[in-house]
Amino acid sequence: MIVIFGLRFVFEFLKENQVEWEDGRWLNQGQVLSIPAILIGLLALWYAARYRRMDQDPPALEVK
């Protein structure tokens, strides 16, 4: 997720805006939508690294 959406974020700087309302904005819609996906990928890496170092299983999610 980090690589795919990180590259999308960068490539969006190279394209022309597709709609008029993106002209005055610093980030276009593709970049704005890529930011949460990059953050989720970073969070997943942090979560995996945290429990790998502790040599323990991650807590089970309880469904009620």
Any key phrases for this structure?
64 residues, mainly alpha
Topology:
Layout: H1 2-11, H2 29-53
Helix pairs in contact: 1-2
Q: What would a concise description of this structure say?
A:
The protein has 64 residues and is mainly α. It contains 2 helices and no strands.
Name the helix and strand elements from N-terminus to C-terminus, one letter apiece: HH
Shape: elongated
Can you summarize the main beta sheet? none
* Uncertain stretches: none
Report the portion of residues in β strands.
under 5%
Helix count equals 2
Mean pLDDT across every amino acid position: 82
Number of strands: 0
By helix and strand content, what is the structural category?
mainly alpha
The N- to C-terminal Cα distance equals: 29 Å
Helical amount: 40-55%
Gyration radius (Cα, Å) is: 17 Å
Verbal overview:
The protein has 64 residues and is mainly α. It is 55% helix and 0% strand. The chain has 2 helices and no strands. The protein has helices spanning 2-11, 29-53. The longest helix has 25 residues, at 29-53.
